[in-house]
Design a protein that fits this description.
Residues 1-58 form the MobA/VirD2-like nuclease domain. This protein is 38% helix and 19% strand. With 441 residues, the chain is α+β, with helices and mostly antiparallel strands. Among the domains are: 2-44, no CATH class; 63-121, no CATH class; 131-200, no CATH class; 206-275; 305-370, no CATH class. The strands form six sheets. The chain has a three-stranded antiparallel sheet. Strands 6-7-8 form a three-stranded antiparallel sheet. Helix 6 (131-145) crosses helix 7 (151-162).
């Protein structure tokens, strides 16, 4: 019947018809000739439009009525622009475009309906911003992206399982954006608010993504051996990942960084902290490297300028040294946040909070006043004097008693002696507490 209506059913017309089951809709392909058996050319103008009309006729479908019903249904959705209204129609199988204040709705190559653009614009509502649903959609998109082979597979899964259509804009192979048509909630959502398109179309496995991030970090370290965790963080934000304490975090999952990368980043963080002190000499640099356990002092830049707060800090220390009321400059410096570190005969004052390092020798301070002096042992603040030890009389007698026992053993009186009555049974009262009374004379 279809071929008859289309003009390809004359006696002797060759056909090759075969079925396909590779999509959700089983469909037929027909191969024939546009030359009729009598040699005339079969008319083929507007075949796409005529084909849709023939199909509608054979299926008993009133296309005009169906289109009107679909447009009414589309108007019930929450949308904030013509583009979003168009996305609803696209998800229903229609084409839509606007021209001169009119919206044209096409299907099967034929304009089925015309609507004033003002009518559609009057239905615009505020953009859909329900955070809970957007978060839910984000989780759904990412979950099914990871089990889909490509964009078409993802669209099929979302449509069949959740009634969600993804409508893309731009070229088929290079779309520039997409909208989410949420049929369950009759809403249209700008896709970028839920999941960036490049992330949506990233059909790599989680393991491949981690490998890609790790390779990216490796490249960053190769280009800049001193790059810090903070600088890497700024770069990784574009890939929606971050690193922390030797771990890579991505998409709610984590895995350890390769040890050499974690060590290099940790070292670079310490180098960055050292350079905040603006070390001006190799000696200052080496001291800070020792303090912060950096084994690559060659990576630390030696500064040509002191930090802005250096002069004020040095001035405070001079006030301390010049104050006759300060008996212990070292203690007063500690109160100002400085500690003293000594390297050979050179003394440094370091303020870790303010990132200040001052070479006291070079600045002309009297370093004798900050040298540690040996302390005499004290007890309760009073110098401790060693006194002669006096023995407790009872302990002294006990010691003598043991010495006598040793003599007896040497003389053969003991475990090997003939008479052991001295050891037991001599009116010993076992219930008595030994308080030393038996030793009194």
């Amino acid at each position: 019947q279809y071929l008859q209506e289309m003009g390809y059913a004359e006696p002797g017309q060759p056909w090759l018809i075969y079925a396909h089951h590779d999509t959700d809709n089983t469909h037929l392909h027909v191969v024939t000739s546009r030359i009729a058996p009598d040699g005339r050319k079969i008319p083929h103008a507007h075949e796409r439009r005529r084909s849709q009309e023939v199909i509608d006729k054979l299926l008993g479908m009133d296309r005009k009525k169906k289109t009107a019903a679909d447009i009414d249904a589309a108007k019930q959705y929450t949308f904030s622009s013509f583009a979003q209204f168009k996305a609803v129609l696209t998800s229903m199988g229609y084409e839509a475009y606007q021209k001169d204040g009119t919206v044209f709705v096409k299907r099967g190559g034929k304009v089925q309906e015309r609507i004033p653009l003002a009518e559609i614009e009057s239905l615009n509502k505020n953009s859909y911003r329900e955070r809970a649903r957007c978060q839910q959609l984000r989780s759904i998109l990412k979950k099914y992206r990871d089990v889909s082979a490509d964009r078409e597979d993802l669209q099929k899964e979302l449509k069949s399982k959740f009634g969600i259509d993804l409508v893309f804009f731009g070229k088929k192979d290079a779309p520039y954006g997409y909208l989410i048509v949420d049929h369950a909630n009759k809403t249209v959502i700008h896709g970028a608010r839920v999941l960036a398109m490049d992330e949506l179309l990233d059909f790599a496995t989680p393991e491949e993504r981690f490998e890609r991030i790790e390779n990216y970090i490796d490249q960053l370290l190769s280009l800049n051996p001193k790059i810090t965790q903070g600088e890497i963080f700024q770069k990784l934000r574009k890939q929606r990942a971050y690193i922390k304490k030797g771990m890579i975090y991505f998409d709610g999952k984590s895995r350890p960084l390769k040890p050499f990368m974690a060590e290099a980043i940790n070292r670079n963080n310490r180098i960055h902290f050292i350079e905040m002190f603006h070390p001006a000499t190799e000696a200052e640099r080496d001291l800070l490297c020792k303090i912060f356990k950096v084994d690559r002092p060659d990576l630390v830049d030696i500064s040509t300028e002191r930090p802005p707060t250096y002069a004020d800090a040095a001035g405070k220390l001079r006030d301390i040294f010049q104050n006759p009321g300060v008996k212990s400059p070292r203690g007063a410096m500690y109160q100002e946040g400085f500690i003293i570190r000594q390297v050979d005969d050179t003394y440094y004052a370091i303020n870790f909070k303010e990132h200040i390092l001052i070479n006291l020798n070079e600045e002309g301070f009297d370093v004798e006043r900050v040298k540690k002096k040996p302390k005499k042992p004290q007890r309760n603040g009073v110098p401790f004097k060693k006194s002669k030890k006096t023995l407790n009389p009872i302990k002294s007698l006990q010691r003598k008693s043991h010495q006598g026992l040793g003599k007896l053993r040497k003389e053969g009186v003991g475990s090997h002696g003939a008479n052991r009555e001295w050891e037991v049974g001599q009116n010993t009262h076992y219930e008595d507490i030994d308080d030393g009374r038996s030793l009194k004379r």
